Every structure is written in structure tokens, then in C-alpha cells.
Amino acid sequence: MMNIGIDVGGMTIKSGIVDENCNIIETLIISTEVEKGFEKIAQNMVDMINNLVKKAKLTLNDIDTIGVGIPGVADEKGKIYFATNLYWVDVDLGKILRDNFPSQKIYVENDATVACVAEHSFGSIKGVKNAIMLTLGTGVGGGIIINGEKYSGSNGIGSEIGHMVINRGDNFYECSCGNNGCFETYCSALAIIKYAQKLVEDEEYSGKLKGIKKEDITAKLIFEGYEEKDDLCVKVVDRFIDNLSTGIANLINIFAPEFITLGGGVSNSYNLYIDELYKKVQEKIIFKKLPFARIVKAQLGNNAGIIGAAMLK
Amino acid sequence: MMNIGIDVGGMTIKSGIVDENCNIIETLIISTEVEKGFEKIAQNMVDMINNLVKKAKLTLNDIDTIGVGIPGVADEKGKIYFATNLYWVDVDLGKILRDNFPSQKIYVENDATVACVAEHSFGSIKGVKNAIMLTLGTGVGGGIIINGEKYSGSNGIGSEIGHMVINRGDNFYECSCGNNGCFETYCSALAIIKYAQKLVEDEEYSGKLKGIKKEDITAKLIFEGYEEKDDLCVKVVDRFIDNLSTGIANLINIFAPEFITLGGGVSNSYNLYIDELYKKVQEKIIFKKLPFARIVKAQLGNNAGIIGAAMLK
């Protein structure tokens, strides 16, 4: 039997048929057409699934599960509470898929949890008993593996690790969730960029980022500047590492996992900060002399969304 | 078959034989004799177990498991890394019990996890799938139930929820773990007392706590003052509620459990702060319009330590 995995993004919807060895044997990609609204996009997804199966010269009888990763929050029945970038609020993707594919098991999950399942199926935390994934992208997403299975809480809406407050009221901007001091407002790509933009504006500074338009400052540039020892970039990245170590120490104190794996764009610079990160995590965890989680880099690239969704159960 | 549960405290060691319906059918209590050191105390525990079985007119063949709750940290084999109040460091209680009782399964766990297992076996979170227990005592202890089973991490040393940093560097005193800003430095009985002591000292104040010796200020007095609307006590308890709501919102965002149960001495005043606590938790969680965990009061009293230890597996 084979599974279908679907990765819903703001620009494209990627689908693939995945065999039991995690090989993608066929793919189909469509554009998301956000402006046409949920009903139309859901119908496009149904058509895409049928076309994908035909393209692979299979029938639906060959397909066991259909899993979907979304940039938002869904409950265990596939009802989506919201997916901000898609302008979806209270839409029932699970029901539409079940109505159209009554012989397949249907799963809908947050994309960070899907990425975590992919890493657990065949990536950096393959087969591990207990692990946490942090996706350091625009926000900070969280995925949790407990006893070898994904964990997203009683109603499927947990693992929102980016909204763990670590520093109440201390940050210069508010989190989208309404709090001030969330993990993601220190450790996402956006957080890094915002802090650099603020420093470029606020301080006497004539280094690497001087003269670059604020909106053109990227996390990649900042990490390059860190490597080149540019004062401002060092200050920004040091702050990132310091807060990342606090968040990770919290997770180790609570979960005592074997692994923490870092994904998302900011994990591309993993080699630049991992030594300092380990040092600070060890200083901050409660049991400083005992072995603690390995902090590794996620291994999977673009296809992780498809494969993770296909592995949902 | 019956189990033995042992609750090791700084003053006494309580033991009991517990049947499959969670009834304690016999007990035996000895004093802890901290000053005589680990070897002697462990021998006393072995003798206690044998005497307990005799007292109940049973033999060891009737006993399936022996579980021990300790005020400290143990791995899954019963090696205790430390139990600060007992002055135990790197002692192997599990091995001594296995050597003396080779036919019984031996479990050693942190006492907050044991309290959580007791509440899950027959108290406030009985049979719940996912739940968190916070013991608000001298420190803040944590217990975690995931998929109906206790969770304490890959090496058994997790669930240290009291050392989740929520407010980096903000507090006026350092946590014993070396960080500043840990949950327990805002929400334990000790935290409440310390803050009241500081305010009595610092401020022009002529209310309830004026003239009381600093070392005689208790959490009970402070909550009485809160009820009587004493300015200082209101300020102390408001700060406690505010930070408790941040910590609980973090846990709900991460775990999305059905229940959070509050135990320990500070939970005695649950009725005084639960309404305000719910309100603030709802303001702080990411999904403010979705149902979230019920926050309840632990139900079990003195015997929870024995029964929880007997239920370990």
C-alpha cells in the first residue's frame, strides 16, 4: 500500500505518492490560488489527488492514507481553526476529503508537526523515542515525538512551542499571539531581522548592514556578518543564541528528550552557532552534570512536507 | 497481587501495602535519620519493607512491585543523582532494593511525578489521557501524563517544570538551579513568602504583616491577607497569579492537555485565585477562542505519596 502526502503552502500545493520505504514515486504541484478562497482550493486538492493517482497509473485502491500539512491549526478530525496566510478560518478540510475519499484514512496536521514526523521517519531523529523539533523560520514552529509517536495534545492543537514565553514583557515588539516575550520573538528569522533593523536604525554604526535598505536585511546577511565579526551582527546573533539556549534548556528540563532537531531557514547557519549554543544550554539546564539531549540539524529538504504528511497516522 | 508504595520525606519514610483497588491495607512509618547517611537509611527501608509485609500477615510472594517516591532525581533504574534535603548524591537505591527483593519489580521516581500518578490513578485527573500536575510547595514540582502514562523523559529526569524560565533575569533572587526567572521563583510557597518579606522590608506599610517577624510570614498568612484585601498581600498574590497564568499558558500551548491539576500547600487557597487565574490563562494562550485545559485542585492528601508510589510502572 502507498500513501499520499500533501504540503499546502501559501504559493503552491505539493502532492506526492509515497511508498512504504519513504520513496516518492510520483508528484504533482499546483498553485494555491489563495484569492479564490477555501472551497475552490479544497476542490483543486480533490482534483489534484485524483490526477496524481492517474499520473502514477494507480487507482485509489492502492492508497491507504491521505495526509495534509497546513500552515495553521487543525484538530484531530481535520477541521482547520485557522491558517492565517491562507485566510482560512473554521474550515472543514477533513470532512471534504473524507467525503471524496471515503476509503482512505484522512489526516490534517500543522506543518511543523509534519516536518517533525518526516525527520522522525527518515531524517535527523529517525526512530528516536523522544524528540523535539524546532522550525526556525518566519516563526518558531514546534513538533514533539513522545514514545516514538507524534504528540500534539488532546485536541491536536498543542506543540506551539514558539509561543512559550521565556522573557515576559522584555521584548521591543509584541508577538502576534498578544503576549510579549514569546520564544519566537527572539529566535525566528523574523525576530533576528527585526532586531537588526532596530539596531541599524538606533545606533551609530558603519558596518556591513549600513546603507542596506531595511526591508532588504535578511537572516542570511546577518549570519554572514556574524561570521565576519561585524559588531551589529554579532550582537544580534549573540542575543539569538542566548535566548535559543534558554528555550532549549526549558524543553530539556521538561521533556528530557534524546534529541532536539533544528529546522527552518535559520538552521542553515547551524555550524556557526552550535558550539556556543551547547555551552549555554549546559549552563542553563537543571542537571548540568548529566548527559542531555543532542542538538542536531534537520536533514530533509523540500520533500519533507510531502513525506511527513504521507507518514501521518 | 498487591504493591508496596514508599514515600521518602526529610522527616519520615512512610510505607504501605496497596491493593488493586488503590486501598491501603497496611502501613508502617519510620523516621528518616538523615544524619546517619544513605547506606543506613537504605537498610532501614529494606527492614521496613520486610516488617510491613509481616505486619500485614503476607509474604513477599504476594507483592508485585515496590515503588519509591523521593524528593530528588532518579533515573529509570533507580539510581538517584541527588536528593538535596537528604544529602544524597549518586546513590543506587534501585540496586539495593533489587538485590534484596529480586522477585519484585522496583521503581524509584521523583515525588512530584509520584503525586501525579496518584492523582491519575484515583484523584483529580483519574483516567485522563493527557494532564499536567504542578505541586506548588517549597518549590514547584511537575508531573506529566501523556497518553494515560506518566512521562518523565528518556532518562527519567524530565518533568522539571518548575525550572522553566518564564521571565529571564527579572526576579530579585536567583533560583537554586543557577538561572534567574524560573517558574518556581514566582509560584512556589517560598517565592510568595520571599516577595512578601521583601515588600514588608522595602515599603511604607502598616497592614496585616507589619510587626510579624520575617521568618514567621507564611503563605497561609499572605492568602488570608489577600482575602482581607491587605494591600501588600494583594500585591504579592496578584504577582503570583499573573506568573502562574504565564507558566500554565506555556504548558497549554505546548501540551494541550485536558487537565492541569494544582497540588502542594499553595493549592489550599485554590478557591481564592482560580477565577482570576482562568481569566488570565485564557488571555495568554495562543488559541483564545478554543476550549482549553480545565485547571483543577488535587484531591489527595497525605496518603498520595504511598499510593502513587505503589502505582508506578
Q: Main attributes?
A:
Nucleotidyltransferase, domain 5, five-stranded mixed beta sheet, 2 domains, 9 helices, alpha/beta, 313 residues, 36% helix, homodimer
Biggest interface goes to:
A-B, 49 and 49 residues
Q: What is the total number of structural domains of chain A?
A: 2
| Helix-strand string of chain A | EEEHEEEEHEHEEEHHHHEHEH
Query: N- to C-terminal separation of chain A?
Result: 14 Å
- Gyration radius of chain A, rounded: 20 Å
CATH architecture assignment of the largest domain in chain A: 2-Layer Sandwich
Describe the structure.
The structure is a homodimer of 313-residue chains. Chain A is an alpha/beta fold and 313 residues long. Chain A has two domains: 2-120 and 302-310, 2-Layer Sandwich (Nucleotidyltransferase, domain 5); 127-297, Nucleotidyltransferase, domain 5 (2-Layer Sandwich). Chain A contains nine helices and 13 strands. Chain A has helices at residues 38-55, 93-100, 111-122, 184-187, 189-202, 219-227, 231-255, 270-284, 304-310; strands spanning 2-8, 12-18, 24-31, 63-70, 73-74, 79-83, 88-92, 105-110, 131-136, 140-146, 149-150, 259-263, 294-297. In chain A, a hairpin with a 4-residue loop joins strand 5 (73-74) and strand 6 (79-83). The longest helix of chain A has 25 residues, at 231-255. Chain A starts with a strand and ends with a helix. The model of chain A has no long low-confidence stretch (mean pLDDT 95). At the A-B interface, strand 10 and helix 7 of A face strand 10 and helix 7 of B.
